Amino acid sequence: MYLDRDLSFGAVSECLARTAAEPVAAAQALLSRRDEEALAEARARDALRGLTPGGEPLAGMVLGVKACFDVRGWTTHAGSRVLADAPPAAEDAALVRALRAAGAVLLAQNNMTEFAYGALGLNAAYGTPLTPCMTDAPRVAGGSSSGGAVAVALGMAHVALVSDTSGSARIPAAFCGVAGFKPSRGRYDDGGMMYLSPTFDVPGIIAADAAGCLRVDKALAPDSAPPHPACGAMPLAGRIFVLPDHVEDMLVPQVRNTFSAWLERLREAGAVLRRMPMPCIAQAGAVARDGGIIAAEAYALHAPRLAVDSARYDPRVGPRMLLGARVPAHAYLAAQRRLAELRGEYDALMAGADAVLTPTVPMLPPPVAMLDDNDVYLRENARAFSLTEFANRLDLPSISLPGAPAAGNAVGLMATGLRGGDRALLAAAAQIEDVLGSAARRRN
Length: 444
Hints:
The chain has an eleven-stranded mixed β-sheet, sandwiched between helices. The protein has one domain: Amidase signature (AS) domain (Amidase signature (AS) enzymes), CATH 3.90.1300.10. By secondary structure, the protein is an alpha/beta fold. The two termini are 13 Å apart. It is globular, with a radius of gyration of 20 Å. The protein is built from 16 helices and eleven strands. Residues 25-426 form the Amidase domain.
């Protein structure tokens, strides 16, 4: 344990040592680094500790930033060759500034799926990070925030700033044995974040566990709204969790068995588990897809570049964006209206409950080799976000909790809460983690 006087320097030194111990994974996960600058910044922070007004709630935390957020001096290329030659950012994104002001030391820019358009983490330009949880074959780390999840899982960083459109914080967290949090819209400042879909994108957090996500959330949203009625002080034995009745048939056996074991432990701890139909969850993803919301918005953002530089796009990304040009306006608007209705239906069904519990992803991380076939890639990509996407479509806070990385189970438990009830969800997630022992495994 490092003393307070060298807390930040010791934390950065340890992350650099872990990075050096995993050179292949580091090359895949970290795209730009500031090793010496981070050490110097850490020394300066340690020297001034205690003199900063309000303190530094994230002191001792090392930060990685997804390549879709501006960092002064680095190119915000979003994992794409298309923007590789763009000028460096002139200033930090709002959240990068906030995290650094709270005491986190920035170390690296993290890899991602090109323009965040993919749930598996493949990247043809900068390499594909691999999950450290399963080593029987090279398997994807999940996307689009692949590099951040790998960095946190291997101790190269303590927190990763990421984005989440359909599960981009939570899918890689599940595949890599860490925690990924997607907040309600508007909770975090998204200034300086490159969008894929303005309707669904939000900044998110990846940390080792729910306690780490909660710590970061308190630093980023210290003056948040009054506590939700489902407050963090409520014991787990008094909480009600909803289990959507359509989910079980979607799960591969290992995920189903792991999820069932977790539910049994929660029952033993006194949590109330209520299985019920949740058609709004089952329908939300299909509504967004049928309305072409993401494709249309991605195309609108990229149309000028696609018109002159489409050949430089990843072949799994550019052609899907081009499909957005064909989306009828009436279909897009109808989907937006229907999603608003489904949000109301979810709110009504969840009256008196704390969160929905599901696995984060219905399958294990697929081997990279099987994804060479484009049809297989599209199928597995859709499967990967089939359980996470409803939180984005219905604007809900959602967190993936680490499962059992030591046992090689790249399985996450996802808790999805009530709109605006972010702090309550994080508090409940930390309680769940304690019951399951996930947090203790991560800290040992």
